[in-house]
């Protein structure tokens, strides 16, 4: 589907206008949104707008890394939206020209819809109209970045909950949850860090160097991405600390189990020796014919066991 919004010179917003109408002199600038377009509609990127073949190829062949390319009379941006459920990325392409913004995405995104509705309201403001296509581009990018925050906050909430209930669950289950959180943080990092680098490149580009107001808005987005990056790094460090703590706890429990088994084995070693000696079938063993030999050997084994346990207690083996 292709939808078109035209902003007239007297700040009126017109929607559902034909694509061919954006060249009308009554429009100051326009926004054309390719929302999950068909192959025939996607072909308009070439036949109507005459964009560069490499830029069109990047639109049609997903998934590209976030980037910005500068052409003679427009700029081409590759952006990433986040799926809150899977944390997978959805590519959003923007063509920013002096009198138009063209957005292209293969599936419907609520961030684009929010930016579309917001621009339809705010475009009546003279300052917003003066910024033209940069205003629409900012709203799209800002909406995409704002969607990152709930995803990061959700991981942080799970991390806090995991830290609180850490002593009540098995180490194996906790470790699985920690590694799952680290995997999700890695997905977020792969999306947010390239977007942060893209914003840095845009801010330091000569193409908007002289435009103070657009730079201020894009700098605000860059600050948001810096904050998100710091949150992700902090959460990754916390998961690493939790992982190390659980590994140490598990090792300590294993050491306790091994110590207990070692004590039991050590206590039974001399008893096994005595039982083995008197279990031999030699004929000339005087103790076998002694009337009280059985009870005497049992008594010796009991006394030996008690003496060894007391010795271990004195050495602190049971602490």
From TrEMBL:
It is found in: Cell membrane; Membrane. GO terms for molecular function: cobalt ion binding; cobalt ion transmembrane transporter activity; magnesium ion binding; magnesium ion transmembrane transporter activity. One of its GO terms (cellular component) is plasma membrane. InterPro entries: CorA_cytoplasmic_dom (IPR045861), CorA_TM1_TM2 (IPR045863), Mg/Co-transport_prot_CorA (IPR004488), MgTranspt_CorA/ZnTranspt_ZntB (IPR002523). It is a multi-pass membrane protein. The keyword Transport applies. The chain crosses the membrane at residues 261-280, 292-313. Belongs to the CorA metal ion transporter (MIT) (TC 1.A.35) family. This is Magnesium transport protein CorA. It comes from Fontibacillus phaseoli. The lineage of its organism: Bacteria, Bacillati, Bacillota, Bacilli, Bacillales.
């Amino acid at each position: 589907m292709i939808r078109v919004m035209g902003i007239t010179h007297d700040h009126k917003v017109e929607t559902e206008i034909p694509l061919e109408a954006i060249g009308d002199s009554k429009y100051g600038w326009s926004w054309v949104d390719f929302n999950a377009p068909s192959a025939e509609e996607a072909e308009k990127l070439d036949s109507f707008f005459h964009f560069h073949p490499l830029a069109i190829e990047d639109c049609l062949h997903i998934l590209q890394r976030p980037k910005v390319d500068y052409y003679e009379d427009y700029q081409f941006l590759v952006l990433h939206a986040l799926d809150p459920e899977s944390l997978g990325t959805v590519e959003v392409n923007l063509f920013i020209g002096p009198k138009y913004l063209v957005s292209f995405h293969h599936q419907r995104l609520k961030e684009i819809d929010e930016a579309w509705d917001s621009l339809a309201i705010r475009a009546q403001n003279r300052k917003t109209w003066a910024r033209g296509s940069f205003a629409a581009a900012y709203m799209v990018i800002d909406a995409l970045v704002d969607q990152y925050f709930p995803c990061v906050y959700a991981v942080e909430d799970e991390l806090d909950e995991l830290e609180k209930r850490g002593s009540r669950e098995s180490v194996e289950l906790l470790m699985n949850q920690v590694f799952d959180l680290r995997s999700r943080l890695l997905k977020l990092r792969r999306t947010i860090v390239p977007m942060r680098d893209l914003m840095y490149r845009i801010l330091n580009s000569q193409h908007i160097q002289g435009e103070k107001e657009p730079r201020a808005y894009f700098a605000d987005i860059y600050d948001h991405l810096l904050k998100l990056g710091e949150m992700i790094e902090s959460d990754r460090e916390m998961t690493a600390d939790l992982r190390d703590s659980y590994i140490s706890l598990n090792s300590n429990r294993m050491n306790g189990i091994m110590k207990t088994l070692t004590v039991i084995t050590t206590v039974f070693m001399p008893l096994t020796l005595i039982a083995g000696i008197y279990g031999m079938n030699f004929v000339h063993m005087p103790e076998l014919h002694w009337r009280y030999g059985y009870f005497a050997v049992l008594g010796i084994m009991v006394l030996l066991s008690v003496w060894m346990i007391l010795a271990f207690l004195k050495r602190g083996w049971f602490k």
